[in-house]
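pls design
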């Protein structure tokens, strides 16, 4: 691993977003500051925190929200990272060039230096989640980033449902998987399906922790935007899949958890799933279907 530290304190931000990008950025930075004052050494914000979740419609005007990297958001996050000597994972609507945009997570180290970026690989296209209209699929692959306190992996929201992404990120050396998220209930479906949907979301991510022997931290946004109620429920779980911190569904929260990274090795010693993988038998995974 890239660090000699055994212990790291992580903070994840569950926040509401409003129509003003400037106000959201100021508020997000303030919440990061709060997390740092509570001892967090790595802090992760929710997906696309600088704006309302604009993907509920297909609107060319929303491309004006995109920004370059580096840009205004990375500059603001870098300043607080330097001030508090922390690592920050931020989620940005990246303008790569005219007509090419990505849903991107950036990693900023305690010096305020941009040390990595991950472009969302799995792009949904569902009612009120029309992301394929806005985002080009990621082309940087699955990665792990050494930080002063831990080696971390960043995936984004819809990536949560794909064990392949979690596995490859863990194989790269990640000890903690961060999933900045914007997921919620369609109000007309909440009564019938809401509890099941949230439970499935938690379960799949706990399974990534168990299957790979890593910590998982998923910060979600909260609050109603249009006809979507973002369900919050942010959580952190350990390599055994045990939830060690969880937020509620109806308010902003900052979750702080102290992680002992030695659990990664201990868990993998007792449940040696990586050792017993049949890497000679998995060629079919690169095909859409096997007839």
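designed seq:
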């Amino acid at each position: 691993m890239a660090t000699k530290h055994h212990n790291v304190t992580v903070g994840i931000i569950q926040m509401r977003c409003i129509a003003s990008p400037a106000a959201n950025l100021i508020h997000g930075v303030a919440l990061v500051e709060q997390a740092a004052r509570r001892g967090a050494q790595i802090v992760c914000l929710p997906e696309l925190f600088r704006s309302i979740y604009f993907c509920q419609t297909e609107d060319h005007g929303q491309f004006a929200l995109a920004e370059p990297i580096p840009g205004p958001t990375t500059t603001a996050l870098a300043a607080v990272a330097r001030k508090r000597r922390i690592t920050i994972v931020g989620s940005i609507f990246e303008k790569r060039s005219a007509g090419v945009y990505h849903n991107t997570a950036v990693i900023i180290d305690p010096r305020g230096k941009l040390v990595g970026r991950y472009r969302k690989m799995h792009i949904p296209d569902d009612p009120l989640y029309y992301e394929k209209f806005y985002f080009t699929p990621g082309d940087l692959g699955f990665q792990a980033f050494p930080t002063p306190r831990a080696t971390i992996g960043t995936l984004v929201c819809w990536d949560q449902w794909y064990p392949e992404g979690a596995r490859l990120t863990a194989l790269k050396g990640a000890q903690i998987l961060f999933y900045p998220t914007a997921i919620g209930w369609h109000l007309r479906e909440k009564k019938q399906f809401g509890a099941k949907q949230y439970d499935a979301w938690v379960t799949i991510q706990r399974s990534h922790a168990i299957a790979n022997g890593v910590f998982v931290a998923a910060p979600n946004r909260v609050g109603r935007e249009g006809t979507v109620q973002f369900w919050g429920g942010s959580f952190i779980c350990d390599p055994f899949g045990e939830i060690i911190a969880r937020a509620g569904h109806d308010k902003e929260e900052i979750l702080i958890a102290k992680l002992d990274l030695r659990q990664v090795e201990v868990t993998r010693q007792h449940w040696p799933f990586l050792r017993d993988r049949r890497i000679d038998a998995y060629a079919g995974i690169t095909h859409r279907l096997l007839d």
